[in-house]
Write a structure and sequence with these properties.
457 residues; alpha/beta; eight-stranded parallel beta sheet; three-stranded antiparallel beta sheet
Length: 457
């Protein structure tokens, strides 16, 4: 048993039991309503946007900083979000729960997070050289002699055999501490559509977990899984891998060493199967089913299920059982891969689109501008901000404005979902179907919402 980091979940009796659950999560860091949407903080712009929203009345109860972006997290934000002597926010606004994304993709393939970690680690110099991490920060997502790098699982196994887990855990704690995480989440290698990779990732997670649990610097502990999007295709290999993952996590429900944990996950969707016109519907159903089954096991083991990088599909993730869904505020809502010979593509437009309060989709600024000009200089925005002609702002202020909108929209979506789940006068399925029908992602959210599909309990 974890002891001081024990969690307690208080389920609200008015909740209509669907695949998800609604209630209050009691933790050593405070008490939080779940399910909840968490803004994922990557840049200085993201941090500032969330700060402004809180100052203007938005109740942001969970935040998810990117661990590889620690240099965007300055002392002014620490003073604001975790005030010590001089409190800069009203006393009625409690400090948020911080669940940082360890970005374990950096330890499985070349990506922006890997580039960031190498930059952060560089000041250590040769005297602080961590050969174990140098090995993991040079892995590849596939086996190819021409790449001159090791496949991720082979590199992880070699690292643990030659160096043991200590150096990896020291590195993990260092980077999670730098962004103020309340949860120490141990990273694992990428899970592919192979049962063997599932078993190896879970084995490594359970190997690292006892070390994490002995750490007193963090209030809570967890395991982070990185899933390949190939895991959700229709092949027999993918089916077997999903089954192995569900069975592996289910076995934790009966194991006291894996109770009271934050089980977090992120999907490497570089293959774009989840958005594919032909294969997307089946892939999204497979993702929803996986979330439902993982949530059932997590609930039995008194844990918390967290999904990072959910894009604009947060509502579907919540309905499939995620207790916390992390939404990236700026940039593409996928992992930024870096391919050999070229840098990652940002695809940042001259004027960024803005997330619609009604549709939950990103709308081109031209559409919003036309609405603004035809409706007395107004368009729908979250209550924490005013409609403004952001397309005339400086590029930095444009991104800050759209980040505020996305944060406000999806934090509100989490609140809406909880209220709908607790409303005894109207079935959750009916409320959710109405919200999805008004969205700009009707098919995608339906595929991801078991309550709407009539599969809730």
């Amino acid at each position: 048993m974890i002891g001081a980091s024990r969690l307690y979940y208080e389920e609200k009796t008015a909740f209509e039991h669907a695949a998800s659950r609604a209630g209050r999560l009691h933790t050593p860091a405070g008490v939080f309503d779940v399910p909840e949407v968490s803004p994922s903080l990557r840049t200085l712009t993201d941090w500032k946007a969330v700060q402004l929203n809180i100052e203007h009345g938005l109740q942001v109860r969970v935040i998810s900083p990117y661990a590889s972006e620690a240099d965007s997290f300055g002392p002014e934000f620490a003073d604001f979000f975790w005030p010590t002597q001089t409190r800069l926010i009203p006393t009625s606004v409690p400090s948020p729960l911080v669940i940082a994304d360890i970005e374990s993709e950096a330890l499985s393939f070349n990506c922006k997070a890997r580039e960031n970690y190498k930059r952060l680690d560089k000041p250590m110099g040769k005297s602080g050289r961590n050969e174990a991490m140098e090995l993991l920060l040079s892995t590849s997502g596939r086996t190819d002699a021409g790449l001159r790098t090791q496949e991720a699982h082979a590199a992880w196994n070699q690292m643990l055999e030659e160096y043991g887990p200590g150096l990896l855990m020291d590195w993990t704690k260092q980077h999670l501490t730098a962004v103020g995480s309340d949860v120490l989440s141990v990273p694992t290698p990428i899970i592919k559509k192979e049962a063997g990779s599932v078993e190896n990732a879970l084995r490594i997670g359970k190997l690292l977990l006892p070390i994490a649990q002995r750490s007193t610097e963090f209030k809570m502990h967890g395991i982070h899984l990185l899933l390949s999007d190939g895991l959700f295709d229709v092949s027999s290999r993918a089916t077997k891998a999903r089954s192995a993952l569900e069975k592996g996590i289910a076995s934790w429900a009966m194991d006291y060493t894996t109770r009271d944990l934050f089980l977090s996950m992120k999907i490497d969707d570089s293959g774009t199967i989840l958005n594919d016109r032909e294969r997307g519907r089946i892939a999204r159903r497979h993702l929803s089913d996986l979330l439902v089954n993982l949530q059932q096991s997590v609930r039995l083991s008194n844990g918390v299920l967290v999904a990072f990088n959910v894009g604009n599909w947060a509502l579907g993730y919540l309905d499939s059982g995620a207790d916390i869904a992390g939404v990236r505020l700026t940039g593409r809502p996928i992992i930024d891969r870096l391919w050999a010979g070229r840098k990652g593509e940002t695809h940042e437009l001259d004027v960024p689109p803005i997330t619609s309060l009604r549709s939950m989709a990103d709308e081109p600024y031209e559409v919003v501008k036309e609405h603004y000009e035809q409706n007395d200089q107004a368009f729908p925005v979250p209550s924490c901000m005013d409609p403004e002609p952001y397309w005339g702002f400086s590029p930095r202020d444009q991104w800050k404005y759209v980040a505020r909108a996305k944060c406000g929209v999806f934090v509100s979506v989490g609140k809406e979902y909880r209220e709908a789940a607790e409303d005894p006068s109207k079935p959750l399925r009916e409320s959710l179907a109405s919200r999805i029908n008004d969205s700009g992602m009707r098919q995608e959210l339906t595929d991801l919402s078991p309550s709407v599909r009539g599969e809730g309990n």
